[in-house]
Design goal:
145 residues, mainly alpha, elongated
Length: 145
């Protein structure tokens, strides 16, 4: 049996690994992500009570999406939810940048966050959006054939 990996498969596994790495990092240390929810709760007051469940649910969602992408299961759903997740988390950072709030670290990768400034995080999220978009379009084209 010969395995041939295309760019689509490489990107699918890369995005899945990024989501799994992000969730493991948040399981280790989610303090920065919880702090980001605290900052957001200054504008949406009821969020402060649910900061730990919000971060835990995002972490579990990332883990499920990463496993689904690597195992090549429910791909269309995984790409759609991944794209929505990355765009929604990026919109929170853009909201803070527009508002002028200084965010030192977003906690996106938890303990593994190397480049944690808002500009670096938005750049990483931009790359993820491009990868997810390319993979989703490639998957849709392959399903039409």
């Amino acid at each position: 049996m010969k395995l041939s990996f295309s760019l689509y498969h490489t990107i699918r596994i890369f995005v899945g690994a990024v989501f799994i790495l992000s969730s493991i990092g948040k399981f280790i240390d989610s303090s920065d992500a919880q702090y980001l929810v605290e900052l957001l709760s200054m504008n949406i007051y009821w969020l402060i009570e649910y900061k730990a469940p919000i971060v835990l649910s995002i972490t579990l969602l990332e883990l499920v999406l990463g496993i689904g992408l690597i195992w090549n299961r429910y791909i269309s759903w995984a790409y759609g939810i991944s794209l929505l997740l990355v765009l929604s988390l990026s919109s929170v950072l853009v909201f803070f940048m527009i508002q002028g709030t200084q965010v030192a670290a977003c906690g996106c990768f938890g303990a593994f966050d190397l480049l944690s400034g808002p500009n670096a995080t938005l750049a990483k999220n931009g790359v993820l959006v491009l990868c997810i978009g390319y993979a989703w379009i490639s998957y849709a084209k392959s399903m039409r054939k």
